[in-house]
Amino acid sequence: MFRALRHPNFRLYIAGMAVSLAGTWMQQLAQSWLVYRLTGSEFMLGLVWFCSNIPVLLLSPLAGLAADRYPRRRIIFAAQAAAMLQAVLLAFLTLSGAVQTWHVIVLALVFGVSNAFDIPTRQAFYIQLVGKEDLINAISLNSATFNAARVAGPALGGIIVARLGEGPCFALNAVSYLAVLGSLAAMRLDESLEPSPDTPLERLRQGFAYAWHTPPLRGLLATCGLVALSIAPVMTLAPMFAGDIFQRGPDGLGLLTSAMGLGAIAGTLSLARRTASAGLPRVVFFSAATLSITLTLFAISPLFNLSLALMPFIGMAIMRHNASTNTTIQLAIPDHLRGRVMAFYSMMVIGMFPVGSLLAGALANHLGSRAAVFLGATGCAAAAAFVYRRQTQWTNWLTPTRTPHDARHPSPPKPLSERANG
Questions:
Q1: Model confidence pLDDT, tens digit, residues 220-240
Q2: CA atoms within 13 A on the CB side of 192
């Protein structure tokens, strides 16, 4: 289950990320509660989530180009440093009592820009840390760490917000970035790269052409986008459920978020035990189907404890879906396009979420929060039906021997300099 930890660089990476992500989740909860306290508006909650993530949708192609051209560790280091600066400013404004809603929106955009370069680059970075043989394990352990932070961060954040306010959460998040910056600086990697004769526009075109002309990849990316849109309401509107519907305040919000993280840890650790990739498309299907059922039950739940009991299953399904899709894509794509393809993956998984958040806020204003979550459940049901019909095609794509269908859509030839890069 933990075989990827035999790689020293991955051990450094996962240790630094565990601390930093706990701080990030603490800030996300405190930020949502701050906006809820300042405005009491479902739409504003959706708008802040939108600003935090929309840069990933718009800027990820540029990040993918950079990840295939420049040392990935340096890109991640710069992005994490920018996120730390954002947290420092948000802490200062909140602790000084000067914070306004527009401050939160602008700083959410700054955070989103740093994420736009950080997330796709980190996805492409795993293979440098562990190689292909431990890739599924590394992705699963990273997801488990992400969700362990989701448990610890919001639980602690809810307590701090209830007793001290939002400002200390932002300050602790700023300090937590020192852990990941230190771990990146301590790594020993060969990051030498040769320049490419192709223009950035041509390299971007190659990435789009490969994604569009590879039907299994195109289908997986479309599924990721639909699921990201569909889960946005339950995550964006969690403060409304905790505050207005169930009257449980920031402590209740912390419990809901942490329960989702507990389920996600269990789901991703079960994936970490896998050594074969053939069954991953089946995992994608069952995850989408589980989401459609659990979100429906959450939308109609009359009790806080019932909703709390559903959150682990929602978290488990979300992360099993994302981790299995991520691994399926990474095991099948060519190395010279990895950064660009994982940028498209990030656009769907992270970049479509803000669109869903904005829609969730607007729908909740007109129809109510429960109706918005129920519509998300309908979207997951559609995704499950789509995946069910394509499991065989995606499984064949993962096999070493290409099917005749794949042969009709080969990956574009490498430029000479990239062939030399090997």
A1: 999 999 999 999 888 888 888
A2: 4
